[in-house]
TrEMBL record, chain A:
This is Interleukin-11 receptor subunit alpha-like. It comes from the Eukaryota. GO terms for cellular component: membrane. Residues 209-305 form the Fibronectin type-III domain. Keywords: Disulfide bond, Glycoprotein, Membrane, Signal, Transmembrane, Transmembrane helix. InterPro entries: FN3_dom, FN3_sf, Hematopoietin_rcpt_L_F3_CS, Ig-like_fold, IL-12. The lineage of its organism: Eukaryota, Metazoa, Chordata, Craniata, Vertebrata.
UniProtKB/TrEMBL annotation, chain B:
Keywords: Signal. GO terms for biological process: positive regulation of cell population proliferation; positive regulation of MAPK cascade. The keyword Signal applies. GO terms for molecular function: cytokine activity; growth factor activity. Residues 1-26 form the signal peptide. It comes from the Eukaryota. The keyword Oxidoreductase does not apply. This is Uncharacterized LOC103367655. GO terms for cellular component: cytoplasm.
Length: 402, 200
C-alpha cells in the first residue's frame, strides 16, 4: 500500500506526460482559433479583443509572431486598438498572458465595404444578355454578388452570376421592352451595396463578327474578288433575324476604303486594282433595327486578284504573313465609297437582261420603221398608179371624137 | 391584189404596234411580284421608319418611363424563341388587334398634340394614315387565311395633359413602345411568310 501512496518515478512520468499532452491540446485549440478572421475598414481604428482576458491582467500582443506592431494602444481589458490602419496592419495577431501563454489569436483582414458597381451589358443576339461589372471602389475583400434582371413593369428574374468573371447571364429576355433594369447587390464582410443599371437592349444589340470569311480571286478576272462569309454562330439562323453585312476593301497601302452592303453571304468585288494585294474586312448588323450596333470588323484578309502568267499567292491569312513595308507604287487617288445594296452577281444578270431588252427593242423599232416606209411607199405607188390611170382615161377622153 | 397588199401591210403594222408594249415590258428575269406578306412587312418597316423619325425630331430621349399608358399591347411575354414558332392565324389576329389598339392611342395623341399645336402633328397624321393602311392590308390577309378577328381591348388613355411637357413625354413613351412593336411585327411577318405560302 505505501508503494501506492508514494510518487514513484513512473507515476511522475505519467503525470508529466498527461500535463504536457493536456497543455499541447489546449494550445491546439487556440491554434485552431487562429483561423478566425476579423475584418476591419482601412483608414479607421480597429479593435482586436484578447479573448476572455480579465480586466487588469497585462497581455502582450504580437503580429505574425513579432512584437513590432503598427500604431496602436492596448486598453485595460487587453484589447488592441489599431489606429488608422493601412494594408500593412493585416496579418495574424495573437495575445499572450504575462506567463507567455497564448490567450487568443485572430487574422486581421482590411478593406472597404462595397461601393457602386460600374455595369455594362453585351447583347450578341435577341436571346442572350450578358452584363459584367467592375468595382468603383477597390474593396480588397472577397465578395458575393446577387443579380436580377427585369423589363418595364415585369417581375425580377435571376441573372446567373459567374463570380470569378464578375458577370451574369440572362437567357431569353423579354427583348421588345423599351428599358430593362439590372440590379446587382455586392456583399462583403463589411457591408453590401446595390447598384441599379438601366439599359435599352435594342440599342445594345451588337452581333458577333461574321465567321469563316474567305476572300478569293476569280480565275480569268484580274479586277474581281469573291468574298464570302457565314453568319456569326451566336446569331439565330431564322427568317425573323436577318443581318446586313458591310464589306470594305482597299488596295494595301491605300487609305481609302470602298464599301459594299449585302444581305447575302457573299459578294463579288468588280473594281479591284489589278495586280495588287487588297485588304478585305466584313462586319454585320441587325437588318431590322437600325439603332442596333455594327459588329466588330473581322480580321483583315489579304487577297490579290487573278493575274495572267502568275502563280497565285497564298491569299488568305492574317496580315502578318505579308511584308509590313509593302510599297504601294501608285498615286492613291481618293476612291469614292460605293454602296451596292445587293449581290453583284444579280447585277450581271440584270445587265445581260438589259442588253437583250435593248436588242429586242431596236429590232422592233427597226421593223416598225421599215413597215412604215413600206406602207408609205405602197400608198405612194397606189396614188401614182391612180394618177396614171386618170391621165390615161383623160387622154382617152381627149382622143375621143366629139 | 392591191387590196390584199394594202390590208396585209396594215395588219403587219398593227401587229408590230401591238407587240411593242409586250417587247418593252418583257424582261429576261421577270421580277418577283411582292406577296401580301411582303407588303405587310414593307409597310411595317415604313411605319417603324416614321416612328424613328418622329422620335428623332420631336420627342426627347429620357430614361424616365412615365407609364402613362396602361393598355398598350403586352410585349413582356414575347421572346425571340416565340418568333421561331409562330402560328399563322392567331398571330395575324393578335397583330391586328394590337395595331387597332395602337391606332386608338395615336389618334388620342394626335388630338392632344393638335390642342397644344405640337409641330409633330403632320407626321402623326401621316403615321396614322399608314397605320390604317397596314390594318386594312392585314385584315385582307386575315380574311384570306380565315383568321378570326379578335375583339380589340379597350384603351385606357390618360384623361388630361395640361402641359406641353406631358404631351412630349406621352409622345416619347408611345413612340418608343410602338417602335419596338413594329420591330417585333416585322419579324413576325417575315417568320410567317413561308406559312402563308403553305396555306394558299
Amino acid at each position: 500500500m505505501p508503494g501506492l501512496l508514494l510518487p514513484s518515478p513512473v507515476c511522475l512520468t505519467v503525470i508529466w506526460f498527461l500535463s504536457w499532452s493536456l497543455r499541447s491540446s489546449c494550445a491546439q485549440i487556440w491554434t485552431d482559433e487562429v483561423s478566425a478572421v476579423q475584418y476591419g475598414r482601412l483608414d479607421s481604428n480597429v479593435t482586436l479583443a484578447c479573448g476572455k482576458s480579465q480586466i487588469g491582467v497585462p497581455v502582450v500582443w504580437r503580429l505574425n509572431h513579432s512584437s513590432a506592431l503598427p500604431w496602436h494602444r492596448v486598453t485595460s481589458d487587453g484589447s488592441l486598438v489599431l489606429l488608422l490602419v493601412d494594408q500593412a496592419a493585416q496579418g495574424d495577431y495573437s495575445c499572450y498572458d504575462d506567463r507567455g501563454l497564448l490567450l487568443h489569436s485572430v487574422t486581421l483582414r482590411l478593406g472597404h465595404p462595397p461601393g457602386l458597381l460600374s455595369i455594362s451589358c453585351q447583347v450578341p443576339n435577341h436571346t442572350h444578355v450578358r452584363c459584367s461589372w467592375v468595382d468603383s471602389v477597390k474593396t480588397f475583400l472577397p465578395a458575393k454578388y446577387n443579380a436580377s434582371f427585369r423589363g418595364n413593369g415585369q417581375e425580377w428574374r435571376p441573372c446567373i452570376v459567374d463570380l470569378a468573371r464578375r458577370h451574369c447571364d440572362v437567357d431569353h429576355p423579354a427583348f421588345w421592352q423599351p428599358i430593362h433594369t439590372l440590379r446587382v447587390t455586392e456583399t462583403n464582410a463589411l457591408g453590401f451595396e446595390t447598384t441599379y443599371a438601366r439599359f435599352k437592349l435594342h440599342e445594345l444589340l451588337k452581333p458577333d463578327p461574321p465567321e469563316a470569311v474567305l476572300a478569293q480571286q476569280l480565275e480569268g478576272y484580274p479586277k474581281r474578288l469573291n468574298v464570302s462569309w457565314s453568319f456569326p454562330s451566336s446569331w439565330p439562323l431564322h427568317d425573323a433575324f436577318p443581318l446586313v453585312f458591310q464589306i470594305r476593301y482597299r488596295p494595301q497601302g491605300s487609305i481609302y476604303w470602298s464599301e459594299i452592303y449585302s444581305e447575302d453571304s457573299s459578294v463579288v468585288i468588280f473594281d479591284a486594282l489589278s495586280g495588287h494585294i487588297h485588304q478585305v474586312q466584313v462586319r454585320a448588323r441587325d437588318e431590322v433595327n437600325s439603332e442596333s450596333q455594327w459588329s466588330e470588323w473581322t480580321p483583315q484578309l489579304l487577297v490579290r486578284p487573278w493575274e495572267v502568267y502568275t502563280t497565285p499567292d497564298p491569299v488568305d491569312g492574317p496580315e502578318e504573313a505579308f511584308d509590313e513595308d509593302y510599297f504601294f507604287p501608285f498615286d492613291t487617288k481618293p476612291e469614292t465609297s460605293t454602296e451596292k445594296s445587293h449581290n453583284p452577281v444579280h447585277e450581271d444578270d440584270g445587265s445581260l437582261g438589259l442588253v437583250i431588252l435593248l436588242v429586242l427593242f431596236s429590232v422592233v423599232i427597226l421593223t416598225t420603221i421599215l413597215s412604215l416606209i413600206f406602207v408609205v411607199w405602197m400608198r405612194q405607188r397606189r396614188r401614182h398608179h391612180a394618177t396614171k390611170q386618170e391621165l390615161t382615161s383623160m387622154v382617152k377622153m381627149k382622143s375621143m371624137p366629139i | 391584189m392591191k387590196l390584199l397588199l394594202d390590208s396585209s401591210s396594215s395588219l403587219l403594222f398593227s401587229l408590230l404596234l401591238a407587240q411593242l408594249p409586250v417587247f418593252t415590258s418583257a424582261s429576261p428575269v421577270p421580277p418577283r411580284r411582292p406577296t401580301d406578306m411582303d407588303k405587310l412587312s414593307n409597310q411595317t418597316k415604313n411605319l417603324m421608319k416614321l416612328t424613328q423619325e418622329l422620335l428623332r425630331e420631336h420627342a426627347f430621349d429620357s430614361d424616365v418611363e412615365p407609364h402613362r399608358f396602361r393598355s398598350l399591347p403586352e410585349m413582356s411575354n414575347r421572346s425571340a424563341n416565340d418568333l421561331q414558332n409562330l402560328e399563322l392565324k392567331p398571330t395575324l389576329s393578335q397583330l391586328h388587334s394590337d395595331l387597332k389598339l395602337y391606332e386608338h392611342h395615336f389618334e388620342w395623341l394626335n388630338r392632344v398634340s393638335k390642342k397644344h399645336h405640337h409641330p409633330a402633328v403632320p407626321k402623326l397624321v401621316e403615321m396614322i394614315r399608314e397605320m390604317k393602311s397596314l390594318i386594312n392590308l392585314l385584315h385582307r390577309q386575315m380574311q384570306r387565311v380565315e383568321a378570326p378577328r379578335l375583339t380589340p381591348a379597350t384603351p385606357s388613355l390618360p384623361p388630361h395633359l395640361p402641359y406641353q411637357f406631358d404631351v412630349l413625354q406621352s409622345s416619347h413613351e408611345l413612340l418608343q413602345h410602338f417602335k419596338l412593336f413594329c420591330d417585333w411585327a416585322y419579324r413576325a411577318f417575315m417568320s410567317l411568310k413561308p406559312k402563308v405560302s403553305a396555306v394558299q
